[in-house]
Every structure is written in structure tokens, then in C-alpha cells.
Amino acid sequence: MKRRVAGLYAPVFWGGFIGFGVWVSEVSTLCLLPLFVSALLVSFVAEWSLPYEPGWNHPAGDRRRDILHALVNEALNALGLLALPGLVTLFAIDGAWPREWPLWLQLALAIFIADAGISLMHYASHRVAWLWRLHAVHHSVERLYGFNGLMKHPLHQLLEATSGLLPLLVLGIPSQVAALLAFAIAIQLLLQHSNVDIRMGPLRRIFAWAPLHRFHHMRYGRAGDVNFGLFFTLWDWLLGSGFYTPDYQIRQGDLGIGSRPDFPRDYAAQLLDPFATVTLSREPVVPPALRR
Fold first, then answer.
1. Phi, psi (5° rounding) for residue 289?
2. Domain that holds residue 80
3. What is the largest CA-CA distance in the chain?
4. Please, are residues 22 and 104 in contact by the beta-carbon 8 Å criterion?
5. pTM for the whole thing?
6. Other beta carbons less than 10 A from residue 248's beta carbon
7. If you ran DSSP here, which 8-state letter would residue 289 be given?
8. Can you name one GO molecular function term for this protein (predicted)?
9. How many domains does the structure of the chain reveal?
């Protein structure tokens, strides 16, 4: 029974909440907020009921920090949505967005375009030093659970959002579709960082959910430069950065930034860290099963 639930959890969670989001947004996009809270509660219950790593369910002095990151970053998303009509007026090519399409198909197009921009910015954030300093805040986590997918430096959040949204602004994305896109990204982040023992089967060739993304958070230096996609694995296969092996189970002690075991845990200190002078430690040895 547990194995069946593990196989159904991710596709049902993803399709169910995003599909229901499309339906309720026809009434009001404000309905997406309580729907996301419901998704968050389901995520927590599932992580305690069917955990991948039981130790990751217990706070490690990071709960308050993660909540602050989530509140600030979601508030920035809300401000972006409020500013969207004005930005579309400034940048959009008139008539470029297919408004006659069904809402679900417009959302699918928005997800595909945003996924390309955000995934490429993510890839660049592991290649460009100053981008990495901002992105390192997210990689400092030493346990993965759904909520810390929202843990990002606000400046890096702004850069990622811009890379995903700018092409959509030029196309003239409607506010309703943009709100649904923000909701879909939040749902995806819950799944991507989930501590549920998800069994993906052949879906791991398509979706960038937790079983793949955990390898991206490895503490072993460049071994973690894999699986950059937000929604889909397509961009990783094109970039040559896709990686998965059943021979290594990522567990407690495998996550974080190996060269910075003393990375600050406090919220305010994490905001300042990208601008501070730091001393790097020697990278930990990469386990043989993770060598590419």
C-alpha cells in the first residue's frame, strides 16, 4: 500500500492542486492563497506519514528562518503580480499572447517558457561567482522538506523571477495566468524539495521532482552541479547536466555546502552573507557512486 501511495503522491499532488487552481481562479485568483496553504498542510502530513529521511522532519534551528524566507519571497511575488498590468503595458507586443486558448493551455505555455528562463538562470548561478554567492543561501540547507523550497535570498529570487517572467511580459501574459504560474511554481517547489519517499518510475525522465533534485543539493562540490530544471528535465538533458543513480541514497549529512560548513543559519546573517568575505574549507571527498 505504501509503495502505491509513494508512486501516486507526486503526480496526484502536482496535477490535483494545479488543476484545481485553474478551476478556482475562474472565480478569483485570491482563492489560490488558501489553496496553497492546503497544499502546504498536505505536504507536511505526507512527509510525516511517508518520509524519505525521517531526520529531515525535525527542525534544526531553521524553522523560523525558513518561515521568514517564505514570507518575504512570497510577498515579493505578490508585489510583482500587482505591478504586472503596468509592466505588460510597457513591454508587451500587442496581440502576441494567445488569449483565445483555454486557460489550462495558456498556463502550460507559461510554465514551459518560465521553466526555460528560470532553469537557465539557475544553471548560470552555479557558473558565475557573484550569482553563486546569492544562490548559496538556498544551498546552505542541510535537510530537505517541502517548505524550504521557498528559502532563497530575495535578490536571487528577483533575478530568477525576472528571467522567467520577462519573456512572458513581452508576450503580454494576462494577470490571471501569471497568478496561476506563481501558484504552479510554489506547488512545484513543494514537490521538488519534498521529504516524501516519492517513487517516480518513468516520470523521472520528465519531471524535476525530489528524487532528482536531492542530488542537486549534495555537499560534495561540483558533484551537485546537476539537475537544474525547475519543472522539467528537458533543459538538463540539453545542457548535459541530468543525473540520477539508484546506487546512492542521499541521507542526513549529505546536504549543504561542503566548503562552508559554518554557513550562517540566521535569516539576517544570510541576507548579508553574499556581501561578506568568507574563508572556504576543503571540499569533502565525493562518494564513488556519485562520480560522473
1. -70, -15
2. 1-290
3. 56
4. yes
5. 0.95
6. 15
7. G
8. oxidoreductase activity
9. 1
